[in-house]
Write a structure and sequence with these properties.
By secondary structure, the chain is an all-alpha fold. 59% of the residues lie in helices and 1% in strands. It is built from 15 helices and 2 strands. Helix 2 packs antiparallel against helix 6 (128-149) and helix 2 (46-54) packs across helix 11 (216-233). It starts with 5 loop residues before the first strand and ends in a 5-residue tail after the last helix.
Length: 295
């Protein structure tokens, strides 16, 4: 990382595809997400997806320097996990009212996430370019989970269009979502090629991969396995940027693990297959109904 403050969104400077027509907020919020069925086991790859998101310097430092203690993974791991998984459940399966309420709650926290003069990169959690990147990681993760544990035939152009909900549920304008899946691939490849993960963020991400945000006895027990799974779920280019070794033997073990998990998951009743996303959506609606805080 160069000295001084630089634009943390520089990795997003590639040419964007031609936008689709602009939609107003009500129309965007009412868009369906019915094609984005998410196996609950997708949560298993959560740490890998976080690494992809935080690999963009502005997102990584926004999290590393955040003063919002209530959303700090290392201080409130259960609450932080609930917030993230609830967001996905609301974005994909929520009603327009659910999305509006959750956007307002998240926005209250995001308003405090801004870079300072001493920050290595400039960032602002309301920056739609950063939200586009986070949404792109979430959508890419959805595709990967369909291939591993779901239905690969569900990955269609129509499902991709619904993937925009992962960003528009916050402040990302609908027209920022790459117009086609091919455009998305160009955006993804161009952005990943420019990413640089410095030592500060790499240390944070390795700690997440090892579940060091959990009580120490737990993280010591499962940390190595967590790192193994997280490394396996990461695309190869992210493993390289993280400096993580991955051998053919590890790939064989990872493939065996996924075959076993898929065998079990595909035979579960639908409510169990959708857990915990269905439970988190229920909890969000309960909180809205009773006037409790969402995050």
């Amino acid at each position: 990382m160069t000295s001084g403050t630089v634009d943390g969104t520089a990795a997003l400077s590639i040419d964007m595809p031609q936008p689709i027509r602009t939609r107003n907020r009500a129309e965007t919020d009412s868009a369906p997400g019915d094609l984005l069925d998410m196996p609950g086991i997708s949560a298993l790859a959560g740490a890998a997806n976080v690494i992809m998101q935080l690999g963009l310097p502005a997102v990584g430092y926004g999290v590393a320097e955040s003063k919002v203690d209530s959303g700090n993974l290392f201080k409130h791991p259960i609450k932080r996990g609930r917030t993230t998984l609830s967001y996905l459940a609301v974005a994909v399966n929520g009603t327009p009212e659910d999305r509006k309420a959750y956007r307002k709650a998240v926005g209250h926290s995001h308003a405090q996430v801004r870079s300072t003069e001493s920050s290595p990169v400039e960032y602002n959690a309301f920056d739609p370019r950063l939200q586009l990147w986070v949404a792109a990681c979430l959508y890419k993760g959805w595709e990967d989970m369909q291939i591993l544990y779901g239905d690969p035939s569900a990955i269609t152009e129509e499902a991709y269009q619904q993937g925009a909900l992962m960003g528009t549920t916050l402040q990302m304008p609908r027209e920022m979502w790459p117009a086609t899946r091919a455009d998305f691939q160009e955006y993804w490849d161009g952005t990943v090629a420019q990413l640089e993960i410095d030592d500060t963020i790499r240390e944070l991400l390795i700690s997440i991969a090892k579940f060091e945000f959990l009580p120490k006895p737990v993280s010591m027990l499962i940390g190595d396995f967590g790192l193994f799974l997280t490394t396996g779920f990461l695309p190869p280019e992210f493993r390289e940027k993280m400096g993580l070794e991955w051998t053919p033997r590890q790939q064989q073990l990872f493939d065996l693990h996924n075959r076993i998990v898929r065998f079990v998951v595909t035979r579960l009743p639908e409510p169990m297959r959708a857990f915990p996303f269905n439970a988190y959506l229920w909890d969000v609606r309960r909180r809205i109904r009773t006037g409790r805080k969402l995050i």
